[in-house]
Every structure is written in structure tokens, then in C-alpha cells.
Amino acid sequence: MKREHGKPQWLGWVLVLALVLFPAVRLHAQENQVLGEVQFEGTTNVDKTSGVWVDKQYVGYVKELKGSKKVLLLPGEHVISVRQNGYQDFVQTVVLQPGQTQIIRVTMDKAATGPMPPDAELATIRINVNPSRAAVFVDDRFVGHVAEFGGLGRAMLVVPGTHRIRIALPGYETFETDINPLPKQKVDVKTDLVKSDVPVAEPLLKGETSAPPTAKARDAGSPPH
Fold it and tell me: Strands 71-73, 36-42: parallel, antiparallel or unpaired by DSSP?
């Protein structure tokens, strides 16, 4: 009588894992072939720290949009808008093909703005918020991201008086606070943004008003600009 030996049990597990994992690998490869990528390059610090909107949705600032934060988009036409307080919006339309990578070289040009009071008459605002990549709005106008206004030697100069500070980032609840600093007064804004599972409904992340600037970034130890 012939005896038939059973197949090793581990071989069955290998076959199961192969059936589970290999389709996932193929699916990931197919996604990479379907989506297009937009990369951003900037020369100056202003270029690199400017905020980026894709199809009117804030996605981050120029120099961070790579690696795990790279911008992957469906094929087709997309409007890219790059913004910085005191500078003209940089706007470019791209048409992506599946699997294509396009590089956008950002160049920010100074905007014509009204005169700001002398620095000696301005108030100083320091912002220490996590995550530090969150967008900062003053009186409904985008002025930069958190990392520009907190930490050693970094702050924001604002015209004395009442201002609404709003800090927002996709995936987190928006933080808002009102301040009313006096000339030469220093104000600290500190908080940790709370994660949210609710889709972003923050209107300022989808655009900005045309209100005149009331704030500017300032590195301590640097000459006024």
C-alpha cells in the first residue's frame, strides 16, 4: 500500500501570503502609474517657505513637499497657486499625464503694498504650535507657516490693534484666537492642534482674501525688510 505524505504546513502559509501580498504590490504599482507627481523647487528662502495651493486646497509649503509629503495628483489639468505675504501670487496651470512628473520652479515677486509703520511701533507675535507646518492666517490673510514665527529668533511683527489669528492644517481642527497688542508688546500663541477625522471644511485653506497685509515675518537679529 502506497502512503502519500502531506505537504508541509508552512508551504500553505507561503501560498496564502503570496496571494495576499502580490496583488497589493501590483495595485501599488498601478496607482503609481496612474497618478502624476508635481515637484516644487525654489531658490530663495521666500520661495521655499511660500504656501502651496492645488486646485484651491492648501497642501503645505514649497520645501516640505517631497518624500512622504510629495504631491500626487490624478491625470488632467490642475491649477497651482503659491502664496507669500507681501508677494504676488505665483500661479501656474499644469496638465499631468499618468505616471508623469512635472517640476514647478517657484519665483516669488514683491507685491506693491502700502507702507507699514516703523518696526519700533509694531507688536511682536511668537507662534509655537504643533504641527509646525500648519498655515497661519492673520485677519483672514495667509502670512506663512508656523515654523516661520516660532523658535529662537523668529517672530511676526504686526500693526498694534485687534487681529484674528487662525492656524489650520488639513486633518486637524482649526485653532483661532483674537489678540489686541499694544505697540512694542510681545504676545505668545501656543497650542497643539487636535487631529480630526472630519474632512477639512476650513475656507481659508481653499483661498484667501485680498485684505491688505497687517503682518510680516522678522528674524531677530536681521535688519527690517
Answer: antiparallel
